[in-house]
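User: Hey, my collaborator sent me this sequence without any context and asked if I could get a structure. I don't really work with proteins. Can you help?
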Amino acid sequence: MRWTLPTILASFALAAGACSPQTTTAASTPQQVAPTKHPISGLDVIPLTISQNGNTHAFRVEVARTDAEQQKGLMFRTKMGKDEGMLFPSPYPEARSFWMKNTVIPLDIVFIGTDHRISNVAANAVPYSEAPINSAGETIAVLELNGGRAAELGFTPGALVSW
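Assistant: No problem. I've predicted the 3D structure and written it out in structure-token form, which is a compact way to encode the shape of the chain:
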């Protein structure tokens, strides 16, 4: 076999893939962890849960990490799955303010405090509104869900959010 630069690089790529991080379930069965990308935004999609009063609900959320991703958010999106959302993590705890400019669908804007608990929810934010929607104190992240979803699932301030 002739070892060309592309062949050598391909060999390293295969070897690196074989040593990728794995997670272990309770039964100690290794599972590959592959990032999932949203088909429209191209953002990473991760699991997120909200727990309150013994009830836990699982979501799959897009993560808007960069300033550009956060500025675009869910603008121009015409639909979102029932258990989908978008997470806007902060690099440090801070008060946050959102608006609905160019946002077509009503959203629940869920502000997550430094303790990973919901601090406040702006329910059914009005599409296209440029009125500021503010957090009730410092947050580490903001979660956008379909409008009315937080109330439908009974989640109020104090609910634990994990991702």
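In plain terms: Residues 40 and 77 are 9 Å apart (CA to CA). You can pass these tokens on to your collaborator as they are.
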